Amino acid sequence: MKIFIRRIKSINKNRWREGKYTENRKLSFERIIFLTFILAFTFLIVVQTILISPVARTFISGRSEPEGIPLGREEYLYDEGEIGVKLLNGNADGKVKILVNGDEAGVFTGGIVTLKVRDGDVVEVDGSGTGDEVEAVIVTRSGNIDNDCANKRVRVKYGVKKLTQIKIQ
């Protein structure tokens, strides 16, 4: 689309009377559509700009508070379970870690490490901090965790290895 800008130096009165300048001043159908589009587009930009501002949005919408109620402390969106992981061999000196979904969830310092897990969580053992081969096993589980997750074992010499993926019934 090309927009032409005309510069009128002087208007010849004779040409004005002849109607040569009045042809361009008439409102044709195309001009009405073009002006309507420009006005609607400008209005849309102004409204969108106003709605970006939180103060203006509250004033326009008439609501000052979000809808709904906050969740209480005892309301859970997902069922949780517990598993206990024990280190069978190797030193429990804090170098062997347990990861849940890639995040550190516990460290073996001695005894059983208890973890809170949800359905679909991946439990892994990270033995990259030790040079010895270690073996970890799931020794306890809550009643809502599937039997397939019980007594799973993994041997890790270096790196991260998957112990199990949690399935809650």
SSE arrangement:
Layout (H helix, E strand, L loop, with lengths): L12 H6 L3 H4 L3 H24 L1 H8 L18 E10 L7 E4 L2 E5 L4 E7 L3 E5 L7 E8 L11 E4 L3 E6 L4
Antiparallel strand pairs: 1-4, 1-6, 2-3, 2-5, 5-8, 6-7
Keywords: Membrane, Transmembrane, Transmembrane helix
Summarize, please.
The protein is α+β, with helices and mostly antiparallel strands and 169 residues long. It has 4 helices and 8 strands, in the order ααααββββββββ.
Can you offer a commentary on this structure?
The chain crosses the membrane at residues 32-56. Keywords: Membrane, Transmembrane, Transmembrane helix. The chain is an alpha+beta fold and 169 residues long. It has 2 domains: 13-61; 80-165, no CATH class. It is built from 4 helices and 8 strands; from the N terminus they run H-H-H-H-E-E-E-E-E-E-E-E. The chain has helices at residues 13-18, 22-25, 29-52, 54-61, and strands at residues 80-89, 97-100, 103-107, 112-118, 122-126, 134-141, 153-156, 160-165. The strands form 2 sheets. It has a 4-stranded antiparallel beta sheet with strand order 4-1-6-7, with no helix packed on it. A hairpin with a 2-residue loop joins strand 2 (97-100) and strand 3. The longest helix has 24 residues, at 29-52. The chain is elongated and about 95 Å long. The protein starts with 12 loop residues before the first helix and ends with a strand. The mean pLDDT is 79.
